[in-house]
Amino acid sequence: MKAPNITPGPWNLMKCRTLLHVETDASNPTGAGISICSIPKRADGTGEANARAIASVPALLSALESAYKIADAWCCETNPHGDLVRGDSMEHDGALCHREAMRTALEAAGYSFDS
């Protein structure tokens, strides 16, 4: 799995009078205050909710990547003969389904996979 070349986190939400800015945190290795995006404030609060969701992208991707690696190892564990260890149980099928959903989400975020 190869991660996309996004600006590393953490990202913060900065509130101004009419805009919400998502930018890099002071602890960011690339530097503080690097602009990620700006979103207009909205009376219904959706602008701030969207900006908060965007600011969480680095942490969410990191967590999803870790969960995918665990699910991939569990679903694809084989014995020395190359047979799947988990068999066809409902638990395995459920984990496989979640693994595929995680992979689809990672691919939508720009991750690439060898196989």
Characterization of this structure:
The chain has helices at 46-55, 57-75, 90-108; strands at 11-15, 19-24, 35-40. The protein is of the alpha+beta class and 115 residues long. It folds into 2 domains: 11-55, no CATH class; 58-108. Strands 1-2-3 form a 3-stranded antiparallel β-sheet, with helices on one face. It is elongated and about 65 Å long. The model has no long low-confidence stretch (mean pLDDT 88).
Keywords:
115 residues, alpha+beta, 15% strand
In short:
The chain is α+β, with helices and mostly antiparallel strands. 42% of the residues lie in helices and 15% in strands.
Unreliable stretches (pLDDT < 50, length at least 5) are: none
Rg over CA atoms, rounded to whole Å, is 19 Å
Q: Mind describing the biggest β-sheet?
A: 3 strands, antiparallel
Provide mean pLDDT, rounded.
88
Write down the secondary-structure element order.
EEEHHH
| Tally of strands | 3
Quickly count the domains.
2
Question: How large is the count of helical segments?
Answer: 3
For the biggest β-sheet, the strand order reads 1-2-3
Estimate the global geometry from the Cα principal axes. elongated
Helix content: 40-55%
**Which class best fits the helix and strand makeup?**
alpha+beta
Strand content is: 5-15%
Distance between the termini: 9 Å
